[in-house]
């Protein structure tokens, strides 16, 4: 068992001033006084209970605001077509595997006297049954849209009054002795709480194909927010947060338009999102943000260990931006070639022409099963249009 002495040693090692702070700066120098208030690590403890509150607010919002809006737009609560009841296949699905291999499919085919394609269709339909309905997707997107719109509006109203929005060198003058304002504290705690709620709700929300990528994104965002607050890089942190929130508003609005079957509006919003995302993440972010954190801060403050970690996290974020921009360009190219945005590569509903057929027959249909053409139809993707990041 770890003793109190060992725990104190671990904490002392973790909060080593030579890692977190510039040369010749100590934690004692950044203690709150009557004249100035500085960021304290314990300030962020508030984010944990607040994240739970945000999650509860989300449930209430989706139930009493988003759901009635969805109903008003005639978005149905029914999900994908249900698989025919079959005890043997259900037992395999729940107890053994949701993705049977060829050998198991052939065994089930002989046992049930069904052809392999029919059994494959049953497993696709059964997997899709566990996916949420379009109404649930709409409610989730409306919640995110509302939060992003609020926090982005708050960020813009706050930052337009600050000198570092117009001159990024102001982020480093007199660093780290820059006092913490109420606006910055509120902005940070609210953003951190929201990302914490997203991190944990990832396991209860709609399962994305890019689950691991988004998990990494949330962890990087939480780490960046925490790092920049603890070592008082809050000024540049506010710029990063506001820049990222801008495109999030449009992508959630595009999703809602898609679920409501407003295709023209969906395409317009997605086009606006694509332009804003690529220009801000591949243009403004490296030229404005990375330039000041890598070069201006080096010139004015100089590097130290946590400076390197902070910039590595920012560069990791840039790599994610590049990956998502590739997906967006891929979607746009597909849309241009087909005349419309046709399918989301991250669509949570597996599609096949087989799924449009009636219920599985009790006898084999070898000719129809082996000669059928598999045509993909984009159904219930986040946009009727291709792959794009689920922005946070």
TrEMBL record:
User: What superkingdom heads the lineage?
Assistant: Eukaryota
Residues forming coiled coils: none
Its main localization is: endoplasmic reticulum
One Pfam family of this chain:
Homeodomain
- A Gene Ontology molecular function term of the record: sphingosine N-acyltransferase activity
Which residue spans does the record list as DNA-binding? 91-134
Residue span of region Disordered:
343-392
- InterPro entries attached here? HD (IPR001356), Homeodomain-like_sf (IPR009057), Lag1/Lac1-like (IPR016439), TLC-dom (IPR006634)
CDD domains, alphabetized: homeodomain
**Gene3D superfamilies noted in UniProt:** Homeodomain-like (1.10.10.60)
Show where the Homeobox domain sits: 89-133
Its GO biological process annotations read: ceramide biosynthetic process
The metabolic or biological pathway listed in the UniProt record of this protein is: Sphingolipid metabolism; Lipid metabolism; sphingolipid metabolism
Task: Give me the stretches of Low complexity compositional bias.
Answer: 370-381
Keyword terms:
DNA-binding, Endoplasmic reticulum, Homeobox, Lipid biosynthesis, Lipid metabolism, Membrane, Nucleus, Transferase, Transmembrane, Transmembrane helix
Chain ranges passing through the membrane = 44-61, 186-204, 211-230, 266-288, 308-329
**Topology in the lipid bilayer:** Multi-pass membrane protein
**Record-given protein name:** Ceramide synthase 6
- Gene from which the chain derives: cers6
